[in-house]
Amino acid sequence: MSGTVTTLAGGVGAARMLRGLQAVVPPRGLTAIVNVADDTELHGLHISPDLDTVTYTLAEAINPTTGWGLIDETWHAMDALERYGDLAWFRLGDKDLATHLFRTHRLREGATLSAVTAEIAAAWKLALRIIPVTDDRLATKVTLATDGSAGAAGTEIGFQEYFVKHQHSLAISDVRFEGAEKARPAPGVLQAISDADAVVIAPSNPIVSIGPLLAVPGIREAITARRDTTVAVSPIIGGAALKGPADRMLRELGLESSVVGVAHFYREIASVLVIDDVDRDLAAAVEAEGLRCVVAPTIMSGLTEAANLAQIVMESVT
Amino acid sequence: MSGTVTTLAGGVGAARMLRGLQAVVPPRGLTAIVNVADDTELHGLHISPDLDTVTYTLAEAINPTTGWGLIDETWHAMDALERYGDLAWFRLGDKDLATHLFRTHRLREGATLSAVTAEIAAAWKLALRIIPVTDDRLATKVTLATDGSAGAAGTEIGFQEYFVKHQHSLAISDVRFEGAEKARPAPGVLQAISDADAVVIAPSNPIVSIGPLLAVPGIREAITARRDTTVAVSPIIGGAALKGPADRMLRELGLESSVVGVAHFYREIASVLVIDDVDRDLAAAVEAEGLRCVVAPTIMSGLTEAANLAQIVMESVT
Fold it and tell me: How far is residue B307 from each of residues A62, B297, B298, measured CA to CA in Å?
């Protein structure tokens, strides 16, 4: 088994994958490079949804029902916010607010996001290393495909408005990562990719979770150089995403909403794709894309399932 | 009894005075011009302590024990913040946080502080008008008189660091209102002063609560023009402040910590000073400063006492 693993991570699916990996590789050798293009400023606070989901999950503090936010959370601030009108569409729990207050405080003091992220991970006593893909601004923007309450076709809106406010129910025609050209990988990111024994692309949304990581100059090249020991886990199972709009997004952007579409998306940077048992019949089509295909149970309903998947993932490239 | 009253207001003492005034004058004729030089940005949120104390008190939602913050408050966010280190010296309750989140949200949208303040007052269904003295930045800075944990003598620190973090236990040698020269009275402030039947200077800290109002260009002149119908209520009772450091501040800045010192401070802008019964013997000394002196019970322990004082205050100038 490998000593060091670097994972490209979005939110919930990645957090579960990391929890499984932590059970089968030495936690100190585990690095998560996390999407920050969903980050948003809300009421003056810097919110990093994927960083928090990864941190809270690995700290065993995640709300297991929602997959985001903290367990045993209270909502007094949000309930009180309702007095002031319709602002509480992005629900921030009272305890979760503390993380945003701390992060914003440190950023205002001039700390980098990667430094604050390490401080938060330390406060939760995590052994693995969590690094935002960049300390620079990176913001996912989606273009609406059709007219609707969010705007006319062709209107570009922010990711959280699309994802949370409109529950990703809007058809889109384009995705763009604002700031990507000028963004630099955060300290340690490129080295974590090149030095790890294996690189794991977590079962996150390829378009809006992994896509932003690959859009930061230098990262796609660094992973491509590691293609032989890079394995991706498909977030698409039986043609659908377990969570979120990955399946619709793939279709809307002209890709196939299947493990074959995922294979096509990752073919240049990964040499192995792990697909779920239900997609067994598509293994040959995946391999036709130029990746080796591993078939396994990929639904991580608990730690046991996640650890079993992590074991298979690690064996596939080492 | 007058129809319209404009009050110069700081925090707790002013809020109680306003509550009394609201009981004896038509609430729609009551305007509070409130200090904002204590405002601070904390963890990215815009905090307006005096505006909130006035709003919450008039809404009958203030914490009666502390005199600030909301009644039936919970502290989950602050408790959770302790995980991240020593940041919770400025305690923000969960429900109170909603006000700061809303205010910050609207300010980021480009709203003025006076517009947001009116929205907050409307949300609490208040009848009186609450106006921040200015929409521009105004920040009280105090200069330390002696060396200590907060810095060497001569160091200038922000008001909330002095007041909350160090519990105003530090000796000071100077007070300055950063931004005052360029600040403009908020819309409606000068008119509220010139049009009201009476102007009431609340029993707030003359130096750091009323002082910043008088430092905004145009306001001192507007009140001076109303001197005949302007009445101040002394925040100093028996040589001491009921709450806060007003007594020590007066002394440290070379004024007398007594109703005579207060009379001296207000002599050019008020024609009447209301002092407490315990200071009866100083009435002649107050009048020697050129103000008419009214002796009355000034401790507003409840609504009855506040309304009685308000009645006396109003009768003194109308």
Answer: 52, 11, 10
* Confidence tier at A261 by pLDDT (50, 70, 90): very high
Q: What are phi and psi of A60, to 5 degrees?
A: 60, 35
* Chain B contact for A117 (CB, 8 A cutoff): no
Nearest Cα residue in chain A from B95: A77
Global confidence as pTM: 0.92
| Chain A touched by B254 (CB under 8 Å) | no
Closest CA to A295 of A306, A305, A281: A281
pLDDT band at B148; cut points 50, 70, 90: confident
Mean pLDDT of B139-155: 92
Q: From B176, B97, A48, select the one nearest A56 (Cα to Cα).
A: A48
Q: Which CATH superfamily hosts domain A5-63+100-136+181-315?
A: CofD-like domains (3.40.50.10680)
Q: Do A94 and B99 touch (CB under 8 A)?
A: no
Asked if A45 lies within 8 A of B46 by C-beta distance, the reply is: no
The pLDDT of residue A238 is above 90: yes
**CATH 3.40.50.10680 in chain B, residues?**
5-63+100-136+181-315
The ipTM of this complex is 0.89
Coil, helix or strand for A98? Answer: helix
When scoring A52, A73, A91, A101 by the number of chain B Cβ atoms within 10 A, the one with the most, hence best to mutate, is A101
Which of A290-294, B31-35, B132-136, B240-244 is predicted with the least confidence, judged by mean pLDDT? B240-244
Task: Count the residues in chain A.
Answer: 318
Q: Which candidate from A78, A104, A123 shows the least CB-CB separation from B44?
A: A104
For A75, nearest residue in chain B (alpha carbons): B94
Contacts of B99 in chain A (CB under 8 A): 80, 84
